[in-house]
Write a structure and sequence with these properties.
Largest sheet: 4 strands, antiparallel
Number of strands: 4
CATH superfamily of the domain at 19-124: SecB-like
CATH architecture of the domain at 19-124: Roll
CATH topology of the domain at 19-124: Bacterial Protein-export protein SecB
Distance between the termini: 79 Å
Mean pLDDT: 90
Structural class: alpha+beta
Oligomer: single chain
Low-confidence stretches: none
Amino acid sequence: MSQADCQLDDFHFTRLAVRWYPPNEYGHIEIEYGFDYKVGRHKTEKDRYRLAFTVSAKSSTPEPIGYLLDSEIVGFFRFPEGIDQKKADYLIRVNGCAILYGILRGQVANLTGNFPQKKLLLPSLMMREVVDGVENQKTAQRKLKKIASKAPKAASAKKV
């Protein structure tokens, strides 16, 4: 049996907050999910990475109902020596996030199984689509930042 290129060495939660708001009436609740991640590479051991993956969930209503989730899970990964850098960059994002999401999904279901309403089972995802969405959002933010930095600054009034 061969090992996968992306190996999880360790993980921990830096944030796992779940709050439950009772609904005014019972029925289907639309939930909005948010995702983000930050990748870091070890300074001296270039085959080691740190991945911080954040997931949020809240009702799409003006007033919160049902579950409100704010979480961050951090994983420490390693790759075989000599792995292609593009491949490692892809795997840390897609496979790394998928691995951490699976851990988070189980922990949230376990925790919320003790809440008044049925447990919160985070949806199954195509992690490639999540990563593409996060990357598109980061690209748009960089473009806006670049545009804002090139915009002429308003002249400040000089006191006499």
